[in-house]
Write a structure and sequence with these properties.
Length: 417
Amino acid sequence: MKIAKQKGTRDIFFDDMNIWQYVEKKIREIANNYHLNEIRTPVFEATELFARGVGEETDVVNKEMYTFLDKGGRSITLRPELTAGIVRSYIENGFDSYISPVKFWYMANMYRYEKMQKGRFREFTQFGVEIFGSNSYLADLESIAISYNLYQNLGLADKITLSINSIGCSKCRGEYIEKLKKYIRPHLDNMCETCKIRFDKNPLRILDCKEEKCNLILQNAPMITDNLCKECSDDFENLKSGLTKMSIPFVIDKKIVRGLDYYNKTVYEYIANDFKIATGGGGRYDTLVEMLGGKHTPAVGFGIGLDRIIMLLKEYHLINDINQKTDIYFVLLNEEAHLNYLGLISKLRNKGVNVELDICNKSFKAQLKYADKINCNYVCIIGEDEVKNNIAILKNMATGEQVNVDLNVQSIINSIK
Ligand SMILES: [Zn+2]
Ligand SMILES: [Zn+2]
């Protein structure tokens, strides 16, 4: 019996793999330009890390985690996001004794048992950045600049909208939540079940509700952005003028609160305009390091879903000409010629020339036919006469032009330049 892949997982190969590698290359370039350090953390962590770090009342922790007991009876969870794991690593490795800021980037697979949607998988890949040790809005600005830069470099900047908001600090948010609850309390009976539960456990997330009846009630609710303390309000103003100076377009969306519990002050999201789906987001999380047992450390970061980025690149046909081309395909008379020229081919490959040759014992004719079909710049033909004279016919596949070349590394390299 055949075994199929699990729901929500992907096999990535051929053309799609080329697109993935293209995106990954752009990401590495950006990480280098912003002087970020790559970090790789384990795929599984103690379940408690996410319960404490992401928040017990979030959908991620409540409904979506892949949690199991290992053979030693420990509760293990496949990471549903990376921030908590990086913070764990930050504390465990004593990064707080390093000079600030400590800046990490990652590209990694994560796991959430979610409903399937366009561009959403249960095993998915994110690119993200975490910046530790700065409480300045300048770090928020830097994190937005990095993420926006990726959309720009991929030609997607005009296909997405950056929405920003401030959800305040522990001080002004506490006061705001009381105000919000006071406003909602008389309407609570007319709201959905989720909102009723959130009213006590996480009232801020009521603003996230998509139900029509709740939306109507929330229309006149007080907004956190209008209830910020002086410090939070100044930071938000500075952030906005910084974005304008950097020519990064944005809109303010007072309803963004983000699904995870650990954010404060700046929060932001990228939405794909034509598809109305989130492609990434982030924000500040000044209390998370402390919550997970470290010293107080301000921090800001983001994550971008690469599956959706790939989907957009394909939808908008922004991925032309990234197919890998073979430099030379060798067509060889027979097995003897094959073996005789393997040394030469090996030297060419060591010099960085991309060479392919038949390894299926195809006939000379079948090799010639195959060479026509594949994407290669040159075909090097070594038939009966060529073996005798130790020369080859080199055919330029773009122009059809053929020349004779001596069968040594240097003359072949010179002829394909
Ligand atoms: Zn505040
Ligand atoms: Zn509701």
